[in-house]
Amino acid sequence: MLKFVSFLFISVIASLDLAYASSSSDAEALEDSFHDVKYTNRGAEFLFPQRFTDEQVQCLFDKQPLLIQNRFKDAADEVFDLPVGALSAEEKFYREVMPNRLQLITGTAARYASKIRFANAVEVHNGALQGLYEYVSSYDSLYSMAGYGGCLSFLVQLRLDPSYVIYGMENIEGRCRVFNMRESILGDKDFLSSERQLNMANRMLPVTSLHYLKSLDRNWVRQTNEIGRLAGNTKDWLLLLHALQGNNVHGMDEVNRQHIADSLYEKFLTGKEYAANEMNLAKYEDCLMSLRQSIFEKLGIREDQIPTVPADKIVDMCEGRVFFAVAE
User: Residues 321, 160: contact at Cβ < 8 Å?
Assistant: First the structure.
């Protein structure tokens, strides 16, 4: 009897939750947890909205494609929009998340919009890119106390604008990482590229992008006659790997950063049994390719997974429209 009463109580609360807005502490805490996804080569999360507006949720309710775009400023501070594509929710959204027909009459789109958040997870299903979203009830704590789940997840499919290209999705089914070929490996923590390069408006490729690292291959080393330049690249990549290992290289001043680079370089050459005053092209090739491989391994990718971007896609890559996917 007690269990039935508990079930009845939760059912009533759930109905109220779907029909009326709430300002509970749980809902407020959820809003506080929202954050902007930084541009990073570790994913395509920024293609998906973190939250939906009232109008966007109503669009999903009506089963209409939800057109999205990203807004940027150019070098002259003029705002422009780049189309991303169209979003559509999977059937589970309409079956388990969306309010019933009577509740829709009460105008619940705004109330639902405040309870839906992006889970910062991307998947591939049937060759399509999908983002994972969560609907969190304002009465989540009450659900949990009674042994019921107050959080429902559902997928939203993204049909990309034709100007976007994602390599490698044909062999993936499920959770994945999507790398942006334009962006810096270190994201907003990059200390190698200039602010001008990291600014999307300038259409420039950061010097620590995957495209850049892949282009500095063995042939590049063999064609380079400036030993000092190769030593500098080796130190830069040692610092890059040091940062990827969780060390705060970005926050250092230039003097301390150079000191760390020199120390890492000396230790690295000792491990290779190379003397600094005896370095040549062959030894630098060995050093740089070894470091590059370590960087790729730290990112969880193989060199052969990184696509070679054809000439006609270089502009798209510089605008952040060329990606490649790697299964988790």
Answer: no
At residue 84, the pLDDT reads 87
Measured at the alpha carbon of residue 273, what is the angle toward residues 299 and 209, in degrees to the nearest 5? 25
Longest dimension (CA), the chain: 85
Give the C-alpha separation, 9 to 5, whole Å.
6
Residue 17 in tokens: 């939750």
DSSP sequence for 255-295: HHHHHHHHHHHHHHHHHHT--GGG--HHHHHHHHHHHHHHH
State the Cα–Cα distance between residues 251 and 235, nearest whole angstrom: 17
pLDDT tens, 52-111?
998 998 899 889 889 988 776 665 677 777 788 999 999 999 888 887 665 666 666 777
Whether 70 contacts 84, CB under 8 Å: yes
Cα Rg, the chain, nearest whole Å: 25
pLDDT tens track for 209-220: 999 999 999 999
Residue 26 has pLDDT above 80, yes or no: no
Consecutive H or E run containing 243: helix 227-244
